[in-house]
Design goal:
Blueprint lengths: L1 H11 L4 H15 L4 H7 L4 H10 L5 H11 L3 H6 L4 H7 L9 H4 L4 E2 H15 L1 H11 L12 E2 L2 H14 L3 H14 L3 H6 L5 H17 L3 E8 L3 E8 L12 H12 L11 E6 L8 E6 L22
Antiparallel strand pairs: 1-2, 3-4, 4-6, 5-6
């Protein structure tokens, strides 16, 4: 009996990295219909080397794994943990690389232009290589980002925020990411629409009623509760017609929305507003509420973007 217990325990252990990798390679080979010769070429190996390694489930070099991951446009870690959207992978390599993985395609109520602003922030702040690695990690190709009005799940914004926060352990870069939306939107039709308005009161009313739900995201319903010449109070709650997605309300998304909200005066040439959050669904309130203090008209200077930070490495 002891022997049987030991066998069961041994069989229940997680596979070694080499075996886990070969399990993933076997599935990739089946789903992509690769021959041994084709997969060997992608791994930068001869067919004889590939077959010898495959027979013994031997380790392959990290350079071979990187070569395959770059061809498939996925993070190299996915080859070892097996977390690959195989349906999306098949579509990408079948000429439909504009499609999103299910994680970002289902229950989608945000606009792609919003995700692009956050990726643009990553590129400007941490370098294009970091942006490229991030897209591979999410198994998304640049071609999927082309249509600004395409729908995407709010998880993409949340995952980008989580990546930046994991390496900075600071909410300020997430707020800065919200500020940075101005850099992308200002030269788009969203910026052109916002600039048709005059005055702090009018522009905030327009953004809340006409821009957020139509051009940014419809996960929340936003409204202005009070407004004066000095500031306003904006509140929002989850749209009851939208499927619940946990990532809609968490501290990172709150910081992101704070940054975007404060950037509205910049479309009229002023500094950012001062924004203070006074209620939060994540903390148990019925809605999120932001107190916005408009900038002084004398401070009509746009805050420059911070200098580029060191590139981040994916773990």
């Amino acid at each position: 009996m002891a022997s049987g217990k030991n066998d069961s325990s041994r069989n229940s252990k997680a596979p070694t990295p080499a075996r886990a990798l070969w399990n993933t390679l076997a599935r990739i080979q089946i789903t992509q219909n690769y021959s041994d010769a084709q997969l060997a070429e992608l791994l930068k190996m001869t067919q004889r080397e590939f077959l010898a390694h495959k027979a013994g489930r031997k380790d392959i070099s990290i350079l071979s794994a990187l070569s395959l991951s770059e061809h498939l446009h996925i993070g190299v870690e996915a080859l070892f943990n097996g977390q690959i959207d195989y349906t999306s992978l098949t579509l990408h390599h079948g000429g439909q690389d504009h499609l999103l993985p299910e994680r970002y395609a289902l229950k989608a109520m945000s606009r792609m232009r919003s995700a692009k602003t956050f990726l643009n922030y990553v590129e400007e702040r941490y370098g294009w290589q970091t942006r490229a690695m991030l897209l591979r990690k999410f198994q998304i190709k640049e071609s999927a980002l082309v249509n600004d009005d395409a729908l995407v799940n709010v998880r993409l914004a949340s995952d980008i925020c989580s990546f930046v926060h994991r390496y900075t352990n600071d909410l300020q870069p997430i707020v800065d990411m919200g500020h940075h939306s101005f850099n992308t939107y200002s030269s788009s039709k969203v910026g052109a629409l916002i600039r048709t308005q005059e005055g702090m009161r009018t522009v905030h009313e327009f953004v809340v009623s006409e821009i957020l739900g139509k051009y940014i995201e419809a996960n929340f319903i936003w409204a202005i509760e009070t407004i004066s010449n000095q500031g306003c109070t904006v509140s929002g709650y989850p749209n009851p017609d939208v499927p619940e997605v946990e990532e809609m309300h968490n501290p990172l998304m709150c910081a992101l929305r704070t940054g975007f909200t404060s950037s509205v005066p910049r479309y009229l040439g002023f500094r950012n507003s001062s924004v203070r959050k006074t209620a939060c669904i994540w903390q148990g309130d019925s809605r999120c509420r932001y107190e916005i203090q408009f900038p002084e008209t004398a401070s009509a200077h746009v805050i420059p973007f911070k200098k580029r930070a060191p590139e981040l490495e994916l773990r």
